[in-house]
Please model this.
Amino acid sequence: MSENKVCKTCGEEKPIDEFYKQSKARKDGTPIYMASCTLCVNKAQWEKKKLSPKYKEYRKQWEQENKEYRNKYSAEWGAKNKEHLDEYRKEYSKQRWAKQKAEKAPKEKRIALTEEEKRRRGLESQKRWREKNPEKAKGSQKEWREKNVKKTSARWAQRNKERIATDPEYAKVRLEYHRVQVLRRRQVGGSHTIGEWEALKAATGNKCLCCGVNGDEVALTRDHVVPLSKGGTDDISNIQPLCASCNSKKRARTIDYRG
Model:
């Protein structure tokens, strides 16, 4: 049965075979073993070697000559030891930050920034980064949107709803956009702009051509002279301004109130 010995450095009890023999022996011929185990001795020697200028120069030269191999090995090791690497980076960042904080001279107390000022500075910083790295910014934004489709849609819907409630002009634009999308899905031919519609209302006196009610009192709606269900188009030549009530009463009949 082999003897055991307690390592002076790590404090663990290990078999005597895990200790280096000294060059000298006792008078009776029995060997003398070192106080520290082979693992601790090798570790201490390695730490001492790393600090020597000669080794640092050798290491630097080797890395320059074997750059591709080093990068490949580092990437493979990082992939296999991701958790360990993350922990090391966190600990290194903490130590580095603590060291920098200790070395810095005490400064005057900074003025606390408001939330609005913090947000403004953050947006400016992001903008500067996007201008310097357009390709990376484009790729990261696309990747984020793909991963957060529901979140992005919900946020846009909320902002759009708030803007519609506070901005009448934007509300008109969004309503027109929705109307055009519906017509496209129905594959209706022809189209007209908001400007053409406003010009048509002005040309007809801004009133309902059926009952004569003023457009300032009641909102005027677009009525298709030839209904869409009967092959009518959305061209401005097929549009007449009617109030909602008269438009509803007309139903799907072809009636031209323009005279």
